Amino acid sequence: MRIDILTVVPELLESPFKHSILKRAQDNGVVEIHVHNIRDFSTDKHRKVDDYAFSGGAGMVMTIQPIEDAINHLKSQRDYDEVIYTSPDGEVFNQRIANQCSLYKNIIILCGHYKGVDQRVRDYLITREISIGDYVLTGGEMAAAVMVDAIVRLIPGAMSDETSALTDSFQDNLLSPPVYTRPADYKGWKVPDVLLSGNDRQVDEWKEKQAWERTKRLRPDLLEGHE
Ligand code: ADE
């Protein structure tokens, strides 16, 4: 998979992809992540990428030209499954969307900034708008980082233990069961006996029950539509 991110603040995305699973996934050739500075595509002599909104109003608007040129430059080299725009107006990102995106070959993520992009970018160039939650960020870069993290870990080969992505919270619309590690008894705080029993069937049953109970208690909304 290849992910191209377009931003006016590339510095914000210098670090998030350079560590842990995301770094390994890139080192192993599972994914390529490229961050592009939209300013590099501006034809303005001051590399301007924004302008005042017609009819006034507070805040600057990202202009079409550098964005269209950046997208066209990328599209001239390969086909893209989706051109995503990060925006609080978009459909709210979740595990289902992460799964869907993890199957794509190439995607572009355009990070919104200032007051957002000229509406014509959204009308003519964007195929999908995604929000990471009902709150407003100063820009779409953090949203892009969150999405890329959630997507990349689902690509086969990204995780050393591939089954662990399948047992995540939300993968079956259930939260994960609790996990424990050594010591089995810390100052009287004990690990449930069943986990020390060595009985795989009982352990599996316990985990499933815990997952259901936890979901019912913490996120009953996830169970709507379940038996
Ligand atoms: N840009 C600003 N707020 C955002 C959000 N909640 N999700 C995605 N992009 C954003």
Describe this structure in words.
Its main location: cytoplasm. It is found in: Cytoplasm. Keywords: Cytoplasm, Methyltransferase, S-adenosyl-L-methionine, Transferase, tRNA processing. One of its GO terms (cellular component) is cytosol. GO terms for molecular function: tRNA (guanine(37)-N1)-methyltransferase activity. The protein is an alpha/beta fold and 227 residues long. The protein has 2 domains: 2-152, SPOUT methyltransferase, trefoil knot domain (Alpha/beta knot, 3-Layer(aba) Sandwich), CATH 3.40.1280; 167-223, tRNA(m1g37)methyltransferase, domain 2 (Trp Operon Repressor, Chain A, Orthogonal Bundle). 30% of the residues lie in helices and 19% in strands. It is built from 7 helices and 9 strands; from the N terminus they run βαβββαβαβαβααββα. A 5-stranded parallel sheet has the order 2-1-6-5-7. β3 and β4 form a beta hairpin. α3 packs across α5 (141-152). The longest helix is centred in the last third of the chain and has 19 residues, at 200-218. 27% of the residues are buried. The model has no long low-confidence stretch (mean pLDDT 95). Adenine binds next to β5.
